[in-house]
Known about the structure:
This protein is of the alpha/beta class and 504 residues long. The protein has helices at 14-20, 39-44, 50-61, 67-78, 112-116, 119-129, 145-154, 173-180, 196-208, 210-218, 231-250, 270-280, 297-304, 329-336, 341-354, 361-370, 378-392, 398-413, 433-441, 450-461, 467-470, 488-503, and strands at 2-4, 11-12, 29-31, 91-95, 98-102, 135-141, 160-167, 187-193, 221-224, 260-265, 285-292, 306-308, 356-358, 371-375, 421-425, 482-484. Strands 4-5-15-10-11-14 form a 6-stranded mixed beta sheet, with helices on both faces. Strands 9-6-7-8-16 form a 5-stranded parallel beta sheet, with helices on both faces.
Amino acid sequence: MFISTRSKGEQVSAATAIKKGIASDGGLFVPETVPHITVKQLEELIHADYQQRAVAILKLFLTDYTQQELNQAVARAYGDGKFNHPKIAPLVKVVQSTHVLELWHGPTSAFKDMALQLLPQLLAQAMGKTGENSEIVILVATSGDTGKAALEGFQDVDKIKIIVFYPNQGVSKIQGLQMVTQQGSNVSVIGVDGNFDDAQTGVKEIFNNEQFNAELGKLGYKLSSANSINWGRLVPQIVYYFSAYLDLVAQGEIKVGDPVDFVVPTGNFGNILAGYYAKLMGLPVNKLICASNSNNVLTDFLITGEYNRKRPFHKTISPSMDILISSNLERLLYLVTDGDVTSIKTWMEELQSKGSYRIPAKLQAKIQDTFTAYWADDKLTTDKIKAVFTEYGYLLDPHTAVAWQAADEYKKSKADQSIPTVIISTASPFKFNDSVLTALTGKTAGNTDEFTLLEELSKLTGAPVPKNLSSLSNKPVRHKGTCAKDKMPETVKAVLELLKKEAD
Ligand SMILES: *Cc1c(COP(=O)(O)O)cnc(C)c1O
């Protein structure tokens, strides 16, 4: 069963936790106990493919889903040519004892696909299992990447509709094209006249508007958000830690039982937390290294024990990590306090009211048994992209470069140099073509067309442009709708009417 991080009492099945997304008291859902995996179970998965590994891990948490349901969900998420690599999440050895886990072979070339391909399947099944009569409407406000990954994941999933709001002026040309060319009979994409905050505020107001929700309810719709605190987004991420480890064994780099370090480019703390769950389940994870950009609130927290969001917000070249409130940290606090919901509730209230909280020294020490943290500014990030390409011929995107920089820092003080390092790579370098080209050539792209940049980057590095990006220029634009920032509720209703008419 799943319970809240902030109070005792509510106890729900995995299906309900995934459908609700957030607990009634505002806390996050966590499993009551962490399941354990035996050495024998691990050994049986060494030669399994990604889908088999996924089902084996998922079923330990999603005990109310049948084996058949999980097989189907995983096949739909990771099968059928959705990923452009047969291994789904390939592990690439770049240099002695340094391996890169590439999580960007999915339909949008970034790691959000790993979770957002599977969550919609789990959610659709959850609706059946919980006797839900309404249709679910997923509302997303996006600054670019998450919206596209959600659209791809929810495309044509039964009994679910998805509406994505993006800032008309606030996304790159490629990001915009990725969204407005989206296929699917249940999707809608709307450009808001405003910036990302306007779009996000609008979506939040819709969620909090009881009257509007009641009106939608009468029409048979229920809103949901599918955001990164949903357990259904976290659990798919545990799988690739196991998969990376098993690949190290399969490639003869380690034996089952040997320790491995993971370096994770971190924003909302979801990815790295999944690594901690893997460790608690029995995967021999030595250290988890948290890598941040100039928004280094997590580095400070993991080193000092104080979480303080009162600091300037930096726009960096690794924008998916530009975050000052890392929501999933709450689940780590739950795990390391053995479920001290009273303290967690207090800390979260302090974070809200005064912008900071401090955990006791003993707890901090316990966290540091596993976690260490480093950060890199844009200059170090850029230098690392250039250095790794020059030395090893391996091309990093800016998020992964932040992690590589952290890995290098960590290695300086690492006691046992024989422990292999896995660097988690969260985006294709082509997704951030502008910053990557600048890092390699020293020249800024200026107003050069993004498709030209993709070609230039490909020429310079010999790496192919991912098809999902190169093919965008000749896909038909399907979504031309825009709306004023104060007209978002009306737009939601109009979109739902239109989608219904089209379906009839
Ligand atoms: C979302 C994202 C991250 C941060 O992951 P969290 O789970 O939020 O810590 C890092 N890199 C890229 C490219 C992302 O899209």
